[in-house]
Amino acid sequence: MRIVLVGPPGAGKGTQAQFIASHLSIPKISTGDIFRANVSGGTELGRQAKEFMDRGDLVPDEVTIAMVRDRLAEDDARDGFLLDGFPRNVPQAETLKKILAEWDTRLDIVLELVVDEDEVVRRLSGRRTCDKCGRIWHVDFDDKQDDVCDDCGGRLFQRDDDKEEVVMHRLEVYRHDTSPLVQFYADENILVGIDATGPVEEVTKRALTALRPLERD
After folding, report:
1. What are the backbone angles phi and psi of residue 193, rounded to the nearest 5°?
2. Catalytic residue list contains 127
3. What does the entry list as the binding residues for ATP (predicted)?
4. Which of 19, 87, 172, 186 could form a disulfide with 93 if both were Cys (CB 3.0 to 4.6 A apart)?
């Protein structure tokens, strides 16, 4: 099955992508993971990407598209994949469609995770990351009263792209560049909206229910 996951930052795409991909035994292909790996590794691409990511802007299309195309060509994605974080705009979606057409295939479904913007701000601006083990805590959901990681004792800090003003900018970018994807894929008749509020397990259940008619025996 070939799936694209769309939704605003903070909708839970990464978490849901992991569960769905595992359930279907297909690779989860996340541009976010690739960018973060390059940033932490100090590569040239990472340095370029970080400038955009820290401002809440998108990494340029030509870099993202080339990276995704190479990843989709790998053997483990031959029989299916789940794309998380790509495409982010209509031109990328059109390019993805052309790439898949070259390989005589197409997307099966696009799942849109739907969540209120106020909830997005609460989810992201409340996140704190451990500077030692990298675990993410939340000041509300984890009832954190200090800035110390309960797992390793590391210091908790707020990533630049989780600061409220950056989150608001990321939402503005999403509305301008990524929201038109909803109409694009609706016109393709492969868009299904999923309520992304509530417990993670409930959101996963809704997503798997939407996918069930497309699962192959």
Report:
1. -90, 140
2. yes
3. 10-15, 127, 198
4. 87
Residue 147 CB neighbour total at 10 angstroms: 14
The CATH H-level superfamily of 2-214 is P-loop containing nucleotide triphosphate hydrolases (3.40.50.300)
Residue type, 48: Q
pLDDT at 216: 67
Catalytic residue among 2, 28, 123, 170: 170
- Indicate the helix (H) or strand (E) that contains 84: strand 81-84
Summarize pLDDT for 178-189 with one digit per residue, the tens: 888 999 999 999
**2 marked as part of a ligand binding site:** no
Is 41 annotated as belonging to a binding site? no
- The domain spans of the chain are 2-214
Per-residue pLDDT tens for 144-190?
778 999 999 999 999 998 999 999 998 998 888 888 899 999 999 99
d(CA 205, CA 200): 9
| Active site (annotated) includes residue 170 | yes
Work out the number of other CB atoms within 10 angstroms of the CB of residue 90.
16
| Of 216 and 187, more confident | 187
